[in-house]
Amino acid sequence: MNERDGREALRSVIQVLREAGLWAYPLYGQDGRWIVACDTDAGRVDVRIGADGYRVEVWDVSPGLFFDEEDERRRSVKERLVRLTLPRLAETMRSAPVTLGEELLSDVWWDHEQHGIGIRLGIEIPFSSEVTLPHLIQELLHQLDLVRTRIEERLLE
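RESULT FIELD:
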């Protein structure tokens, strides 16, 4: 699919999301493909053309996990431990999910700028399910919050 076709294929997604009150806009992604992006208070949303439908991803960064730590060195050590622990924790959560969101977990990372954990959940839906996008997005954002809380609790134990 060329660039113009990709953008055109997402035009109806923008309309559906805007009609639902979300501020959706087209964006040329880092992977060289068009996406529909939305910024909400609960997280960010990306919708792109997937293998057999729309790929819907919600993501956010939970900033300042250790900002309450006054000692710079202790905070740095805690952040390093989190960076080392995150990949194993994410794999464990994917293999034995407690909530629906953990099954959808596609990426977890340490964000150096915001000194916090980034989390991305993703799912692919059929093109025919376009009208359900607003509801699906709200549910995914709720799941994102549950997964973020669970990860932070596990890291701070």
